[in-house]
Design brief:
The protein is mainly β. It has one domain: q2cbj1_9rhob like domain (Jelly Rolls, Sandwich). Helix content is 14%, strand content 35%. The longest helix has 12 residues. The protein is globular and about 40 Å long. The model has no long low-confidence stretch (mean pLDDT 95).
């Protein structure tokens, strides 16, 4: 696991942030759960996603926006890119641990905004800090959280080789 602050060049990051977090630019779709509920149904176990690339195909007209970022991480083969939007909750909600895929691969989570939410990997909590990238093997257990001090927690999740 590794974190890199100020990962993207400032102008590129601000352009990406503006396009993704602006009203009426990116359609986000409701997902009824982030990961399987540990204790049965929980009202806070949901989020919204925008699939940029999956199943070997771009799924968004914003795909080209991500190409310079893929070059920066030296992506040889892309598995998935999705943008996550976790709405604010009154208490920080920790989603259940999960593995993105059953095989070893690289993952990067790029935080689009700073908030008290984050990602847990191997017992370490990595807080969401604007333009901070988290790199790890997403075949290992990890989990996300909501946030309590912003309207939403936004990040970009890239799975690749």
């Amino acid at each position: 696991m590794k974190t890199v602050k100020n990962f993207l060049p400032k102008d590129y990051f601000k352009d990406m942030q503006k396009k993704i977090m602006s009203d009426h630019v990116v359609p986000f779709y409701f997902n009824s759960h982030v990961a399987e509920d540990r204790e049965g149904y929980n009202i806070d176990n949901y989020y919204f996603t925008h699939n940029v690339y999956d199943k070997n195909l771009p799924g968004s007209n914003l795909f080209d926006l991500f190409v310079p970022m893929l070059e920066l991480i030296e992506c040889k083969s892309l598995i998935r890119i999705k943008v996550n939007c976790y709405p604010r909750t009154t208490k920080l909600f920790h989603h259940a641990p999960h593995r993105d895929y059953d095989y070893s691969h690289k993952a990067m989570i790029l935080s689009l905004n700073t908030c008290d939410g984050g990602t847990e990997v191997g017992g370490n909590f990595v807080e969401s800090i604007e333009n901070q990238a988290l790199f790890f093997d997403a075949s290992l257990g990890h989990n996300s959280t909501t946030c309590t001090n912003q309207k939403c927690r936004f990040n970009i999740n890239v799975n690749y080789f």
